[in-house]
Each structure stands twice: as C-alpha cells, then as structure tokens.
Amino acid sequence: MLTFTLRRLVLAVPTLLFISLVIFLLLEFAPGDPMAQVPLTVPPEVKEKMREALGLGQPVHIRFWKWIVQFFWIEPQVMIDSFLGTTFSADDLRVISWQTRSPVMDIVVQRMPQTLWVVGTAYLVGILIAMPIGIYSAYKQYSWFDNAGTFVTMVGFSVPPFFSGVLVIVIFSVQLGWFPSIYDTTHKVTDWNSFVVQLKQMIMPVMVLALQITSQISRFMRASMLDNLNQDYVRTARAKGLRERSVILVHVLRNSMIPVVTIIALGIPAIFGGAIITEQVFKVNGIGQLLITAIQANDLPMVQTLTFIFAVLIVLFNLIADILYGILDPRIRYD
Length: 335
Prior knowledge:
This protein has helices spanning 2-28, 44-53, 60-84, 104-139, 144-158, 161-175, 192-229, 232-239, 244-273, 276-282, 287-296, 300-328. It is mainly α. It folds into 2 domains: 2-84, no CATH class; 110-296, MetI-like fold, CATH 1.10.3720.
C-alpha cells in the first residue's frame, strides 16, 4: 500500500502540471480583456502601463512559468510564514487578482470559512441521513419505506437548487418568518446567542444542499446493498447462525461501502468549490460566488487558481478513495 501511494503521488505531479497547462491555455485564449472595465477617461498610455503592471505584455510561456512558480513555490512559503512567523516570502511577487489587486490566496482564505460552514455542514448532514436510508431501503426492499424513500430521493435529485432554494425562502422566510432569507457573512460567533443566529441562517441553504446530497448517496448505497445481499457469503453467514444485525452491518455493509466511498470522496472537492447556485440564491459570500464574480469580471488569475485548486483536490481524493478500497476490502491489493 505504501509503494502504491508513493507511486500515485509521483504520477500526480505530471498530471497536475498538464492540467495547469490546459487551464492556463483555455483561459488565455478565452475572449475578453481585463482592461475593459477601466473608465474611458483613462489615457491610452496609462492603460498600457496598467497592462504591463498586470503582466499582460509578456509572452504566454513566461506568464505560465511565473504562475507555476508563484503557486507551487511562493504561496507555500507564504503559508509557512503565516504559521511560523518567518520571512521566506517577504519580497516575492504573489498571484494577484486583476479585479481586487490583492493576492488571490488571501481572498480564497477569507471566503473559505463561509463555504465550509454551509457546504461542509450540508455534506456531513447529507451523508449521515443517506447512509441509514440506503441501508434500510435495501434491507426492506419494496416496502412502504423503500417506496417513500425512492420517491423523495428522486424528487430531491431532480429538483434544481435554484428552484428548491427559492421555494424554501418563500415558505420559511417570507410566509412563516422563521429564518433569514439572506446569509450574513459578516456575522461572528462569540457566544450562545450569536451561535443560534448563525445556526438559523445556515438551516435553509444546508437544507437545500443536503437534499441533493442525500438523494444521490442514498441511491448508490441502496443499489450497492442490494448487490451484496444476494451474494453467497451472506447466505453462508446466516447459515452459520450469525445475528441478522451482524450480517447486515458487518459483512454486507463493509463490502457495499466500496463503490459508495468513491461517490463520497469525489464529492468532497465540491465542498471547497462551494455550491455556486445555492450560494448565489442565499447570498453566501463563499468560494462559489467568488468564482462567478471572477468569471464575470474576467479575472483570469482568480479563475485559473480556483479551477486548479479544484483539480488538485480531485486528484488527491481519488488517491484517498483508492487507499480506502484496500482498507475496506482486504482482497484488494495494489502490487
């Protein structure tokens, strides 16, 4: 397992470099000009100096190399400096946002807590609800619980978040007045009362996101459980006199988790990516809204950095899913 992990980590380096090149070139040849929003009263020579300051006058390969150095070398040094108080990156030029003229990673770090509060909580709640529903639906196949669960999950998976988000706002915020319709990103939790306020403003966006997450994972969990319930080892375990609870929760569940782990692991990068539509509906000032704003403003450094971070997370959690396969099923060996 250690050899497999090291080999995958080594292979991840050229993979990520190729992904970064593709992202850079796609955004490089995309239409639009970051100087388009500059007022018309600004003289052409001043615009040209601003263009040079943003690095737009340099060749493509030089800008790509500078971005790679800034992302893989300078930004880790900045992180080390923030934790240890050192000055490794004191005079180094970082990845700068064209829109805000500030370092991209500083903005990402500012937005990340809001995304983790909402999307991370929704993902955890969705998993905790989906697993028991999928297990019990498979065990009680075609029962009223299975039929009701199938109907609810199909509706939850089919209804888009821009509709369900507006629906819960109309019901719980406008009609009932229970929860605020807009997420206050400036709110800070300092005591119990402020925690209650934070909890209230999280309920509706978490509800919308958890509905989709629960619908997806519970269907995979049910299908995987049904595949394993009819296997020979289940009949053998029952014939040996094992309790039904042990057969289901120990033998069947462990083997059924193998395909579900992939869905859960590959869904974790979406937490850091934020729920773009849901964040727009509830005005959550998170990573998803940051990406939309950067695209609208043609802020290429911000867009390519966020996109590449998502790619890194996907490669990383693919590796974690493969490692978990070997833990869940000892028959899987990576030789």
